Amino acid sequence: MRRFGRSLAAAAVGLAATVAPGTAVAAAGAPLPPGPIARNCTHNADGTVLNCSFNVPPGAYQVSVVLGSRTAAANTGLEVEANRSVIAPVTTRSGHTVVRSATVDVRTPESMPDGQEGEGTPGLQLRFTGSAPALAGLRVTPRPHAPRLFVVSDSTAADWLNTVQRGWAQELPQYFGPGLDVANWAVSGSSTVSWLHSSTLFAALKPQVHSGDEVLIQLAHNDKTTPEDTYRANLLSLIDGVRSRGGRPVLVTPPVRHLFDANGRITPTGRIVNSLGVDLPAVMRDVAQLQDIPLLDLTADSETLLEQLGPDASWQMYADLPAGRSQTHFNASGATTVAGLVAREIDRAHLPAAGFVKASSEADEQ
After folding, report:
1. To 10 degrees, what angle do helices 280-291 and 228-244 make?
2. HSE value, Cβ hemisphere, 13 Å, CA-based, for 14
3. Between the CA of residue 248 and those of 7, 305, 353, what are the distances in Å?
4. Interatomic CA distance for residues 219 and 342, integer angstroms
5. Which contacts of 15-18 are long-range, i.e. CB under 8 A and separated by 24 or more positions?
6. 10 Å Cβ neighbour count for 54?
7. Phi, psi (rounded to 5 degrees) for 66
8. Residues 256, 257, 261, CA angle at the centre, nearest 5°?
């Protein structure tokens, strides 16, 4: 993948002041360094998790952190808001720290925008993850003019706050460097029909799209009984709506379901052919070609991946829910893998967002 344009060294400016020389960092059981960390962060009861909260209004913010410890080896990542992964865990040696930055989308409701999981916690929420998290510096800066990458989708991409399942767009921000605001509007249970008819979905998102913003549209899983002509017309309405705001529509075919035939191949239903026999990903490919807009073929990518893993090993990607292992919804590891496929497709398509995709060397480092 290509290296994002903004140097992380720039994010270090001003951070040193938040690290008190000679003091312990915010590792388990250690006192919190003075400044933003002490004012805004607390350990959990057993001292193993560090959570931070900032009373800020909705919008885009850059979170810059110094990760690591002066006294111990550490492994530290960052999740924000509704379990969104923005910095994958970074391993640091004792006495070493690294600077990382991410652009974060803050909104109310905190998770899905239709409020089906409640309002969540107001402001910006940070949770430091990893096997041995340690934080030495922290700064939050408004970024009101950051370019945005909207995601219009369903449960397979959604931000999940109160369950073990994760959406691929929930894990997508960790693949981008600072500067790009990933605004995930995916809503569980939604389809092209509901996105156009609900006042909380496209009607609410459309005024927020500004010139140059990219909008990824992945809707198919819940169009189970949508006729082809209606599905095609709905896609065109979404595309036209984005264009009318100066935005850049991008179609994303849906990830396959864990449905295999006796030969180890994904079934038509698994490839999101609906109950009327409409091959929804094929319609998306055709619409993208006719409209001359980019298409990210996540159906083909996920089908290849699952078939390579096989029916048994590929179960490791899916969420173990109270009703049993889901055939559609991912766990954190599976969503992270699928998000990586999307990031790779963004890079291959040379979308504007590709300029923020992290280089493979940095991804490996993390």
Report:
1. 40
2. 11
3. 26, 28, 11
4. 15
5. 15/64, 15/65, 15/66, 15/99, 15/137, 15/138, 15/139, 16/137, 18/66, 18/137, 18/138, 18/139
6. 17
7. -105, 115
8. 105
List the pLDDT tens digit at each of the 366 positions of the chain.
343 333 322 322 233 333 333 233 444 455 555 577 888 888 777 666 789 999 999 999 999 999 998 889 999 999 999 999 999 999 999 999 999 999 999 999 999 999 999 999 999 999 998 988 989 999 999 999 999 999 999 999 999 999 999 999 999 999 999 999 999 999 999 999 999 999 999 999 999 999 999 999 999 999 999 999 999 999 999 999 999 999 999 999 999 999 999 999 999 999 999 999 999 999 999 999 999 999 999 999 999 999 999 999 999 999 999 999 999 999 999 999 999 999 999 999 999 999 999 986 454 444
195 SS3 class: helix
Segments in 53-93 forming alpha helices (H): none
The type of residue at 148 is R
Q: Is the peptide bond before 109 cis (omega within 30 degrees of 0)?
A: yes
